[in-house]
Write a structure and sequence with these properties.
This protein has about 160 residues and is an alpha/beta fold. The chain is built from eight helices and seven strands. It has one domain: Aconitase, domain 4 (Alpha-Beta Barrel). Keywords: Amino-acid biosynthesis, Branched-chain amino acid biosynthesis, Leucine biosynthesis, Lyase.
Length: about 160
């Protein structure tokens, strides 16, 4: 994996803070993605680059079950979301669309927005600020789902 820049957010980050409900009326993720994290960082969508990371605290992605929340992050090219813990529905929606979500208990307290990070998903580690952190290593079947672009893409490939 490549080195990316960290964009750090707080505990209990709600899906409405990722993409506010009024933008769900837009016709597609491409039009929605420019409004990601707008209430917390109005310039987030201009600053984030493909391969960057979103880092959060406890209960990342709580709130409504909108699949557009992980969808806009993937559309912006976010490489992965790393947090202390995830709301179950956000976690599931992320895997479904092929956005890696990694539980890493210690990293969020020791990094800041702008720090650089490297994710080694297959090893279950993250490197940042000269330190290596242990993270939850995804089971092989989940990594395969992510590698194929998400659950639907994976199931479609199995049918052929």
């Amino acid at each position: 994996m490549e080195t990316g820049t960290i964009f750090k957010f707080h505990n209990d980050l709600d899906t409405d803070q990722i993409i506010a409900s009024q933008y769900l009326l837009l016709p597609n993720l491409d039009e929605m993605k420019g409004h990601a994290f707008e209430s917390l960082d109005p310039d987030f969508s201009k600053k984030v680059k493909p391969g960057d990371f979103v880092v959060g605290g406890e209960n990342f992605g709580c709130g409504s079950s909108r699949e557009q929340a992980p969808g806009v992050l993937k559309a912006l090219g976010v490489q992965a979301v790393v947090a202390k813990s995830f709301a179950r529905i956000f976690y599931r929606n992320s895997i479904n669309i092929g956005l890696p979500v990694i539980v890493c208990k210690d990293l969020p307290d020791e990094v800041n927005t702008g720090d650089k990070m490297v994710l080694h998903m297959s090893e279950g580690t993250v490197e940042a600020n000269g330190k290596t952190y242990s993270c939850t290593k995804l089971p092989e079947y989940m990594q395969n789902i992510l590698n194929q672009g998400g659950l639907i893409a994976s199931l479609n490939k199995e049918e052929k």
